[in-house]
């Protein structure tokens, strides 16, 4: 697919929308959608200039047979590398061209961190079955003032399922799929007097495909399959302790075991990885008579990994601690204030000489007070200004800020600007592993963002256009088997999202994202600058068409286009690394469901319908051709 295809797609959608607008009065405008991630408390999207996307419950439920990586991969500006590969393959999150270490992932507002450093500090997406999720809020741009370190590219808030309306009800699903895949979820939820609850268990297993691709299908036509197994348990409780105080204890356990190969084009028979996550804590909410709230959160994560290969056994143990107390209050109908203080600690336990100092534990921690003020829709004008002061155990004191004015014109056009700064400390792995550097500097970012969102033709057309620029000083990268600081990283891009509701039951969405990035580093006595977005396309886009054919029958189709990228290929030693260009590719998926009752449905996913196997996500690693999942979902 050529790059200029997105222009005719947009024109065609506009024409199709114009032809059908008189048929129905439904709205696609999300101005009145209430979100929590943009400001850390409930607020309508019309009252904030933050760029936020909500993936709602219905969309989540229509991805039960897939993964959370599949869901995120269909959003503008996000590329999940490895989503079409073997299920056990690492899922590399790229958000606006930045690697996963620059994205904060929250579980119900609490950072889900991974101190082992496998994916920076972000939690491994393989730990989170989509079955546990109620909705996802995606907040774009640097958000370090509200969400602290790592929130340089954006924030993804995964909101899990909570209690039901009845005293007790059961729910579940069962899915069969290609490559001998089986996934099932069963759970109970309910509400009784002052207590609500949701308890669920998910199991998933598949034979998978070979992780590595055969280099020569004539002399080595077949590698063995690399299987994957996962179990996950979630417990969410809500206790209305007093009229104003609610307590929400939570517990998530997830583990997976995967087989993996020896590298690009290299098969292996005995390589295995076993990873476990414990995420637990409590949230407290105290209502201030409708004028605001005080919230207190505590979270603890433990991630353990045991990697067995021909090189031996490598166990890792990472612990993360998080505590946060903040409150927001409405001074009057248009002025609000939020203030809080946060504490974080990361600890990496060394058991097999992984760290520079043998058999030791390494930690870092920080405390950071923060404050934000909000003007809410004062004659169409909204504004947020905030600051955070971080006191870090190794990297001293740092100040970050956020300025976010927006203006709403006649409920039809929202103009917005964001200027913000960010601070990110190196991970414990980057500092203290044998290939790390204790002298690394912390990274500091400045981001600029501007755009508009408009609602046209009786609110049946929603168009959002955003441009952004992100500059990072002392950016950290892994080069030549060593972590090091570069001088700076400069990224910029644009995102266009269009949603159209041309007729009753029919929704069409299209997006296009462009990003480019350059790193500047010292070469001898001079600076050198070059493009460095490895595995990240300059151009990406997608088209989704959803249609409620009959009251009980729903169908949708999704086309995802990923442009050309570069990759680094590391052939067997002593051959030098090679820069490889990966060609653009297109993936076409379809979904259908039949609701046989108000609480039950049959569903079918068909992925990569054209059976495209002639593309690379990661050079030397296999991708799945046509694959499918079919199943049943129910509640009692």
From TrEMBL:
A GO BP entry: siderophore transmembrane transport
Pfam families listed in its UniProt record: Plug, TonB_dep_Rec_b-barrel
Keywords on record: Cell outer membrane, Ion transport, Membrane, Signal, TonB box, Transmembrane, Transmembrane beta strand, Transport
Signal peptide: 1-22
Membrane topology: Multi-pass membrane protein
Cross-referenced InterPro entries: Beta-barrel_TonB, Beta-barrel_TonB_sf, Plug_dom, Plug_dom_sf, TonB-dep_rcpt-like, TonB_box_CS
Domain TonB-dependent receptor-like beta-barrel: 183-609
Family: Belongs to the TonB-dependent receptor family.
Residues of the TonB-dependent receptor plug domain: 45-155
Mitochondrion in keyword set: no
GO molecular function: siderophore uptake transmembrane transporter activity
Compartments where found: Cell outer membrane
Organism encoding this protein: Chitinophaga niabensis
Keyword Membrane: yes
Protein name listed in UniProt: Vitamin B12 transporter
Record GO cellular component, one term: cell outer membrane
